[in-house]
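Our preliminary data section would be incomplete without showing what the modeling component actually yields. Below, a chain of 448 amino acids is followed by its predicted structure, encoded as tokens that our downstream tools consume directly.
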Amino acid sequence: MNFNKRSVKKVKHVVDMIPTFYFQDVYRCVKVYHHTYKTFTKKRWVNMKILDMFTKEFAAYDAAYYEKAILEGRIRVNKKPVTLEYQLKDNDCIEHDALRIEPPVYNTEIPVVFEDNEFVVINKPPSMPVHMCGSYLFNTVINLLRYVYDRPNLYSVHRLDKLTSGLLVLAKSSDLALKFQKDLLKHEIGKTYIARVLGDFPCKVGEELVVDKSIYCVSAKLGKYDFCKTEEQEQQGKTAKTIFKKIWYDETTNSSLVECRPQTGRTHQIRVHCLSVGCSIINDVNYGGIFIGNPLEDIVREKLGLEKSESESAEEQKEKEQPELDKDGKPIKGEITGNPNDYEPQVQKKIKPETETENETEKVPKEEEEEKTTDKKEPEVFAEVSEEDQTYVMEIWLHSVRYTFQEKVFETPYPYWANIETKFSAKTYARTSASKVTMKLQKANENL
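Predicted structure:
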């Protein structure tokens, strides 16, 4: 893989609004807003009909929605409406006007583990993606650091899944970010994770198990991967190797705690390799894991004092759950504080107006994907987090615990679920995390 400055994920989104965050129960939410998605034709899209491309590549809406959006001109190519039969060409600019309803994330601090003049290393909470993707723009680590903590101009230098917690290294310069990425490829950076998996992991406590199985993409649209089982899959797969070490096994819950040291950097590698040995990560329902709920919600809820007592009225509870507001009626924003070893509820602080910088206004090369918020009047819509929404998976029991880079060693303590005394039981899991949000998106966009 060849690296260049375009490959570095930086806080340099072309937006013309400051997001409105609000809080419901243990969640941080974003007020619904108008948004224009913008991208350029990928090689695999060339000669595809535009409706076929959207239906195949993007899971946010169904085919009926995309057909209507194309016919109404809300989906355009090179700034012009097109027909359903339009075949995409190389370097076509594709735009999509929509209301953006972002899924909620946990209302927790983002603790800083280490900082110097080169790096900021954080302990990423589960539930939030690192940078903009899919339905997420502002409810991401990068943009929460930007808009809530006033920490712009950071570069993400490695991936960490939305549902995974733990160490995330952010660089303060593009040159350093590129070096970090190159060193990752040359295996000059050591990565260690821990995972709690279902079953008795197939090696003795204290011993290692090497899993060397190629991984291939089952569905780019759904972000689903699997380990190769046939020659055909091997041909399209990529080599992947993970070294596991068993820490303990608990008979009561039939679960094991394992250390995971990936030797390659494939998407969902640890999750797929755990599945391949018959010990899926707990709560990782996409890869065979059982759903036990989202225990961190209860931990945060207790710290926020949101558990309702028998003597407390519904009105008192509702008032208690409301965040502190500023003079404009907006929730006040937080600063990075608290114990870096734990996820504390968000401390609140007033939002400061943001000033425009050179980086925010510079032209983005047309080869890069760009997302821009339109200047239409903001809709007065706040999406609610219902009890059904809370059955979504917000966390899996996989945690990035250690990174070694040059002479630096970044570490974070084990999370709550790594304690053998933490018990759990399986619950009914009825839907994927995107389905309810998708229904809200489609209903909202019918009124555009």
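DSSP finds ten helices and 21 strands in the chain. Confidence is low (pLDDT under 50) at residues 1-14, 308-341, 347-380, 430-435. Preliminary results of this kind motivate Aim 1 of the renewal.
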